[in-house]
């Protein structure tokens, strides 16, 4: 990171709107007024910066946070002295002391983890219990979870939250949603008095049976669309990615541009070269399929995306000039669209946001 942001940008600029993240957290909470809304801030808060995002959410009233790894939990504890912090990937063998020392709570995913933690906690250190209802990834089998009903082992492990994760929440018509909701309700009923958490961002929009006591959204906090594919996005955009135009050049029909001459001009075109590339986290798979906005005009990315440079066709954008900023994310070009154009999902666009960008935060 540069020690001072130059007045004239040479690289790309990433702007993160902390007020929008807080507004999205409130919006998700309003969807389930009787539940608490936590924040999933794994992967450096989905690329948006844990140390800026998590305290802003805590100041707004968020009390519970989830990360994936112990190392992320340690970083979260540094900036969240009082919050409840859960570690989704559970208890690594022998890591119990670090969890205890920093008041981090594992989401225990197997009988071995449960037994190991019970030995460390002896009822004094809280944790969550992960029950697998269809993902076959982490968590106790349904049968194991049901068999633990009334078992004093749960109290010895300080279990104070039951967790499960939805397979296809962003597709509300998939029958697996109802099956998981029903299975989780059965687990819940077998363990009366222990609060429960099922809904990720999209799960929040599956209605009351998915809500339980604690919502667990990540992606939607950062502006991703939690509602079905191409439905209107109820969340506020959070991320803005812009790059200055370094050069404008005119090419003749038949000229090629970029590595391997992958693009060939069908007619005389005007090109603009932008100051970012795949080394910044912009996916190379967006070559020839992605877009950027110049003066509000949608301009196609052409040729292969380079490490530090992207070429745009700005023939139809009269405002394109050296020094003008092009928008790669923002102004309606949202992370879901950028992900789709690159053959991936908005989650990967966010978590891939590079460290070379000049970052700034607004609000908070
Ligand atoms: C990442 C994750 C979440 C958050 O999911 P989003 O789709 O980003 O809202 C919730 N729960 C678990 C177990 C996760 O791994």
Model description:
By secondary structure, this protein is of the alpha/beta class. 26% of the residues lie in helices and 23% in strands. It has two domains: 31-222, Alpha-Beta Barrel (TIM Barrel), CATH 3.20.20; 238-362, Lyase, Ornithine Decarboxylase, Chain A, domain 1. It is built from eleven helices and 19 strands. The longest helix is centred in the middle third of the chain and has 16 residues, at 175-190. The radius of gyration is 23 Å and the shape is elongated. The site of pyridoxal-5'-phosphate has 11 residues, from loops.
Key features?
single chain, 364 residues, alpha/beta, TIM Barrel, Lyase, Ornithine Decarboxylase, Chain A, domain 1, 2 domains, eight-stranded mixed beta sheet, seven-stranded parallel beta sheet, 11 helices, 26% helix, binds pyridoxal-5'-phosphate
Mean pLDDT over all positions: 96
CATH homologous superfamily of the largest domain - what is it?
A: Alanine racemase
- Any idea of the CATH topology of the largest domain? TIM Barrel
Q: What's the total count of β strands?
A: 19
* General form: elongated
**Mind summarizing the main beta sheet?**
8 strands, mixed
Low-confidence stretches: none
Task: Count up the helices.
Answer: 11
N to C succession of SSEs: EHEEHHEHEHEHEHHEHEEEEEEEEEEHHE
How big is the Rg? 23 Å
CATH architecture of the largest domain: Alpha-Beta Barrel
Which structural class do the helices and strands define?
alpha/beta
What is the helical fraction, as a range of percent? 25-40%
User: Which CATH C-level class of the largest domain is it?
Assistant: Alpha Beta
Q: What is the terminal separation in angstroms?
A: 21 Å
Q: What's the domain count?
A: 2
């Amino acid at each position: 990171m540069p020690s001072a942001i130059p007045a004239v940008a040479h690289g790309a600029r990433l702007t993160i709107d902390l007020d929008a993240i807080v507004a999205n957290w409130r919006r998700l909470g309003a969807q389930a007024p009787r539940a608490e809304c936590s924040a999933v801030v794994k992967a450096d808060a989905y690329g948006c910066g844990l140390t800026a995002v998590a305290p802003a959410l805590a100041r707004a009233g968020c009390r519970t946070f989830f990360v994936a790894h112990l190392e992320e939990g340690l970083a979260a504890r540094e900036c969240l002295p009082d919050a409840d912090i859960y570690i989704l990937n559970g208890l690594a063998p022998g890591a119990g002391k670090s969890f205890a020392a920093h008041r981090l709570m594992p989401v225990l995913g197997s009988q071995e983890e449960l037994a190991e933690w019970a030995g460390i906690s002896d009822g004094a250190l809280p944790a969550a219990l992960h029950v697998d209802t269809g993902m076959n990834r982490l968590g106790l089998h349904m049968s194991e979870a049901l068999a633990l009903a009334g078992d004093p082992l749960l109290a010895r492990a300080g279990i104070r939250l039951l967790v499960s994760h939805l397979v296809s929440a962003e597709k509300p018509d998939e029958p697996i949603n109802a099956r998981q909701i029903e299975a989780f309700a059965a687990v819940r009923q077998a363990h009366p008095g222990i609060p429960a958490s099922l809904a990720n961002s999209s799960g929040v929009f599956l209605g009351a049976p998915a809500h339980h006591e604690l919502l667990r959204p990540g992606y939607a906090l950062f502006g991703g669309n939690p509602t079905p594919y191409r439905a209107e996005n109820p969340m506020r955009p959070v991320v803005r990615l812009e790059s200055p135009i370094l050069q404008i050049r005119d090419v003749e029909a038949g000229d090629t541009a970029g590595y391997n001459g992958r693009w060939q001009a069908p007619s005389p075109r005007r090109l603009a070269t932008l100051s970012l590339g795949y080394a910044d986290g912009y996916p190379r798979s967006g070559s020839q399929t992605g877009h950027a906005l110049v003066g509000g005009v949608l301009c196609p990315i052409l040729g292969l995306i380079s490490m530090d440079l992207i070429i745009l066709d700005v023939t139809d954008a009269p405002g394109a000039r050296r020094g003008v900023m092009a928008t790669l994310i923002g102004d309606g070009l949202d992370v879901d669209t950028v992900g789709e154009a690159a053959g991936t999902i908005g989650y990967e666009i966010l978590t891939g946001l590079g460290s070379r960008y000049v970052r700034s935060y607004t609000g908070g």
